[in-house]
Design brief:
Layout: H1 6-18, H2 20-36, H3 51-69, H4 73-78, H5 80-102, H6 112-138
Helix pairs in contact: 2-3, 2-5, 3-5, 3-6, 5-6
Length: 142
């Protein structure tokens, strides 16, 4: 139908599911989700004001970098702007879903500020990946 034989598509999906780069963003997203499950009363006091934003920044930087690595170098060279857009969008959407999820956890609430940090890290590091991909495209060795 779409030009890909069914066996070929199955083989590509099976190959993708075996690739560690596919599972890295899943693992980071799972850690974020598990951290969001902790009730508010069980969270220790912050060592300084804004510490939660630093934590969000670290988690969502890791998530975005893993999302950026998942498609592989070839796809980044072929379609760098699309890959950067998808990485930033995926990170921001997961951040929004995480904030929504927190609204169902006792003593937790969604925060626009937390989501803004999440989305900002996605945008920042997808732009870094985009610049690296564009530079690699121009490189004579690339």
């Amino acid at each position: 139908m779409n030009g890909i034989p069914e066996q070929g598509l199955r083989g590509k999906i099976a190959h993708l599911l075996r690739a560690p780069r596919f599972w890295a963003p899943v693992a980071v997203a799972s850690v974020i989700f598990a951290s969001s499950q902790v009730p508010g009363e069980a969270i220790p006091e912050q060592p300084f004001y804004g510490f939660d934003k630093v934590v969000h920044g670290c988690f969502y930087t890791a998530l975005c970098l893993c999302i950026c690595a998942a498609p592989g170098v070839r796809r980044w060279k072929e379609r760098p702007f699309a890959m950067a857009f998808l990485a930033a969008l995926s990170t921001a959407l997961f951040g929004a879903l995480d904030e929504l999820h927190q609204s169902f956890v006792p003593d937790r609430s969604p925060s626009f500020d937390d989501w803004a940090v999440d989305a900002s890290m996605g945008l920042l590091f997808s732009c870094v990946a985009l610049l690296a991909a564009l530079r690699a495209r121009r490189s004579p060795r690339g």
